[in-house]
Specification:
With 259 residues, this protein is α+β, with helices and mostly antiparallel strands. It has eleven helices and five strands; from the N terminus they run H-H-E-E-H-H-E-H-E-E-H-H-H-H-H-H. It is 41% helix and 17% strand. Helix 4 runs parallel beside helix 5. It comes from Acidiplasma aeolicum.
């Protein structure tokens, strides 16, 4: 049996069967909870051709920060580990790290450690650390029947960007839409203090997230598509690609909004 036979989600289920499914692991430290999460990118798989190293580094930091946002946490530090080939361009690495630092500085944190190992190409693994009062952390398991479901911003941004890029239409703009992620750190804390009960980030698209919540907690959703705010480029992306607007909005991942 291969990974392609069962999918990424099943692998996660297998290795995390003894813990609650969530964006972060949570360790109680007494007066506060420690939040930990990790995310990995490879240059060939996750970074489109033509993306600047700074944009790639910023994207890498942002997707890790988004996991802290999904639990309404406050980021405090970031660890970066790299697997790179010995002949890798050092200028690319410097600019990649510049992008990481630029994104982290938006939240007043920095890189506090990491590791480097020789490898075949370029793989970056990030571990993000956060903290929060136990009463303000929002877990997926806090979901309940009759909750309203809201999204922090428009959907379809990343999907539209990908289709622009794939169809060689406004390629640089498409890359920017895919990789410029805005972790909803402040929004999550405001929502938590205002009484929001559960959160997750939309890394895999809203359809996937709905299925995941149904699978984990046996709670279904009624979604009014007409009330979803759509990225302004969704319509044009549908025109040039032949992909329906609803698929771009609901099925493509990469928006990293809070749900």
């Amino acid at each position: 049996m291969k990974l392609s036979d069962i999918g990424e989600r099943r692998i996660i289920d297998l290795i995390s069967r003894d813990r609650e499914p969530d964006d972060c692991a949570v360790l109680n430290m007494g007066s506060f909870d420690l939040l930990l999460s990790t995310d990995v990118i490879t240059r060939k798989t996750h970074i489109p051709e033509g993306a600047s190293p700074e944009m790639a580094g910023s994207f890498f930091a942002a997707i890790n920060l988004s996991d802290i946002a999904a639990d309404a946490g406050i980021p405090v530090g970031f660890l970066v580990s790299l697997s790179i080939s010995p002949d890798y361009d050092m200028e690319y690495l410097k600019r990649f790290y510049s992008g990481i630092y630029s994104k982290l500085s938006e939240f007043n944190i920095g890189i506090i450690g990491g590791d480097t190992k020789e490898g075949d190409d370029f793989t970056a693994s990030g571990t993000i650390i956060g903290r929060q009062k136990p009463s303000l952390i929002r877990r997926r398991s806090d979901i309940a029947v009759n909750h309203y479901v809201l999204v922090t911003n428009s959907l379809g941004r990343s999907g539209a960007g990908y289709l622009f890029y794939k169809n060689s239409y406004k390629t640089e703009y498409g890359i920017k839409k895919m990789l410029e992620i805005h972790p909803r750190i402040m929004e999550a804390q405001i929502l938590s203090m205002a009484g929001a009960r559960f959160m997750m980030d939309l890394s895999d698209g809203i359809y996937s997230s709905i299925y995941q919540m149904k699978h984990d907690y046996n709670i279904g959703f009624k979604i009014d598509y007409n009330k979803i705010k759509k990225d302004p480029d969704v319509s044009r992306a549908a025109q040039i690609s032949g992909v329906s607007e609803s698929d771009i909005v609901m099925s493509f991942g990469g928006d990293y909004e809070l749900f």
